[in-house]
Design a protein that fits this description.
15% strand; 3 domains; alpha+beta; 11 helices; Butyryl-CoA Dehydrogenase, subunit A, domain 2; 4-stranded antiparallel beta sheet
Length: 395
């Protein structure tokens, strides 16, 4: 392998268990999820029957170690599951992978008490969780955080607002970042806490988004919310680095969402163009349609391989290359999803804007935005490669 990756680590290890997992999740989604998709999108909620199906399959605890009641699945397994769920319903995959983000962060940084208390609740489906990081004053500028946490006796008192919190309106516990001190550099002095609903955070309102409408996005208010000092996750002042590392892992799931959404758009295009006739022949006979189908097939395959490669690197502990690959996969796969959805609308003609195909294009816009915008991911790729391969710090 050549730049930007190391030559000795260019491989993806798909095992039989991964394909068996894919088959089981696909069957689950077709039988127990797809019948509820349109209803869920209209009502902007994940129906209880669908959440129960996911929980019963053990998917909420896919990434949680068996010691805490989970499956102990690797990141490649998470990518495959996310892809298959997103092929049917991106809103549901968003709901699920936020639970994985919460669990991954706890397993990386939290005390044994917090892990033992909360991870089994997530794995069993008894807990609905969220990650409150983005603020109204800025999304990608995490270092500009205005939410504060002041130490008072044996508690931290949190004040501030968080917005675009996935699962925010329904979460009974969440991870929240807040500034505990001023550091020499802007990112220093940010800490992470685990707050539960009984600690007093409030839902200020539901945010209606154009896509993934059933995932429940909300704005939260923290007004003198008292969190026990034992609910500090990791080290005080290290919350920024912890958040960034957690997002490095979760970006693989967003990339996989893009792959699954693009796959759905491709399948819809192939099916429609093979059956719809115009001028006495299937529309797939027209070369302009063939061009769109071929481009989509090539791009979906490339996005899938890049996403699996990123997951494999991180699974093997190669953070240096894994972070770059995850950022590349995130921006590439989500933009492939956008293009595949747009092509699907074109192939469907008038039906493209009056059928579920149009939802795929709306959903793709959300994927490009969260877990770090695609513009930010491009900056991350170049800066990481320049620093690690050439010893140059670029801004």
């Amino acid at each position: 392998m050549t730049l930007p990756f190391s030559p000795q680590d260019f491989k993806v290890e798909l095992r039989e268990e991964h394909e068996l997992l894919r088959q089981s999740v696909r069957e689950l989604c077709e039988s127990r999820v797809r019948p509820y998709v349109e209803k869920g999108e209209r009502e902007m909620a994940i129906p209880p029957e669908v959440r129960k199906a996911v929980v019963d399959a053990g998917l909420m605890g896919l990434n949680i170690k068996p010691d805490y009641g989970g499956q102990g699945g690797d990141l490649l397994s998470q990518a495959i599951v996310t892809e298959e769920i997103s092929r049917v319903w991106p809103s549901l995959s968003t709901h699920v992978f936020i639970h994985w983000l919460f669990s991954t962060t706890l397993q990386l940084f939290a005390s044994e008490r917090l892990r033992s208390e909360h991870l089994p609740e997530v794995a069993s489906g008894r807990a609905v969780v969220a990650f409150a990081n983005t603020e109204p004053s800025g999304g990608s500028d995490v270092a500009g955080m205005r939410t504060t946490a002041r130490k008072v006796g044996s508690h931290y008192v949190i004040n501030g607002r968080k917005t675009f919190v996935t699962n925010g309106g329904i979460a009974d516990r969440l991870l929240v970042t807040a500034r505990t001190s001023q550091g020499e550099r802007r990112w220093m002095g940010i800490s992470m806490f685990l707050a539960s609903r009984e600690h007093g955070f409030k839902v200020e309102g539901r945010i209606e988004t154009s896509g993934v409408r059933a995932s429940n996005t909300a704005q939260l208010l923290f007004e003198d919310v008292r969190v026990p000092e034992g609910n500090l996750v990791g080290e005080e002042g290290n919350g920024f680095k912890q958040t960034m590392l957690a997002f490095d892992y979760s970006r693989v799931s967003v990339a996989a969402q893009g792959v699954g959404l693009a796959q759905a758009a491709l399948e819809a295009s192939l099916s429609y163009s093979s059956q719809r006739e115009a001028f006495g022949q299937p529309v797939a006979s027209f070369q302009m349609v063939q061009e769109r189908l071929a481009d989509a097939m090539a791009e979906v395959a490339a996005a899938r391989l890049l996403t699996y490669f990123a997951a494999s690197l991180l699974d093997r502990g190669n953070l240096q290359d894994g972070v770059v690959a995850a950022s590349m996969a995130k921006f590439y796969a989500t933009e492939v999803a956008e293009r595949a959805a747009s092509r699907a609308i074109e192939v469907h003609g008038g039906y493209g804007v009056s059928t579920p195909v149009e939802r795929l294009l709306r959903d793709s816009q959300i994927l490009k935005t969260y877990e770090g915008t695609n513009m930010i991911q491009r900056l991350t790729v170049v800066r990481q490669v320049m620093k690690s391969k050439f010893g140059v710090n670029v801004r």
